[in-house]
Amino acid sequence: MTLPGAGLRVAVHSLLGPLGEARVVRFTFDGLEYQGLEGEPIAAALAAAGIRVIRHSERFGRPRGVFCAIGHCYECRVTVNGERNVRSCLTPLREGMVVQSQEPIGPGGPLEEPPHEG
Amino acid sequence: MDSPDLGKGRPDSTVICRCEEITLAEIMEAISRGARTLDAVKRQTRAGMGMCQGRTCHQAIVRLLAAAGRGPEQAGRPSIRPPVRPVLLEALDGGEGASTE
């Protein structure tokens, strides 16, 4: 089995054991096709595909990705098969999922210029 | 546990509330204008009103209030109302979204 993003995955976890057998499935993120393991969190599949920026923030347009990874902060939210505000860190990957970066509703672009680094 | 540096450093670029993108400088300004409880800071700045409903930032704001002389009891707890997680309005209506989570 060719494991997508093999070098980025923990093959043997010290507590959880070996990764085990999982079916490789295809999904898209913003129109590009990727592969991941069925049942792993969408965020894990994105990370293994080298995608760290999942969306941009509303106010300052800053890059956002996985922050808490336990479904608590909503920073990794995406649109999945048309449903908005899906937490990619908790939602299992399935074959053929259409995942989209969730940009703000309404006129595009950040609302404000970010404050300069002090 | 104690973080004496909280409140120093880069107040304009340190984001306290990630959801509403409220900076440390904005929280400190609200406190300097007289906000003394979590809810007062929330109403002045929007910190804690975003997708995560303050799960990430409230501890930091309690600490900032403490630095301004308010203990955790005085800083109060945020108003918590159902639903606990953001849900679609149609879920509350018993519609299709009701079964998604």
Question: Helices and strands in order, then pairings?
Answer:
The complex is a heterodimer of chains A (118) and B (101).
Chain A (H helix, E strand, L loop, with lengths): L11 E2 L3 E2 L5 E6 L2 E6 L4 H7 L6 E2 L6 E2 L12 E4 L2 E5 L9 E5 L17
Parallel strand pairs in A: 3-9
Antiparallel strand pairs in A: 1-2, 3-4, 5-6, 7-8, 7-9
Chain B lengths: L14 E3 L4 E2 H9 L5 H8 L12 H10 L4 H4 L13 H4 L9
Helix pairs in contact in B: 1-2
Write down the overall geometry of chain B: elongated
Determine the N-to-C terminus distance of chain A. 49 Å
Tally of helical runs of chain B: 5
Largest interface: A-B, 20 and 18 residues
Q: How many whole angstroms does the radius of gyration of chain A measure?
A: 15 Å
Write down how many β-strands of chain B occur, each being a DSSP E stretch of 2 or more residues. 2
What's the CATH C level of the domain at 23-101 in chain A? Alpha Beta
Task: Give the DSSP E fraction of chain B (strand runs of 2 or more residues).
Answer: under 5%
Mean pLDDT of chain B: 83
**Shape, principal axes of CA atoms of chain A:** globular
Distance between the termini of chain B: 35 Å
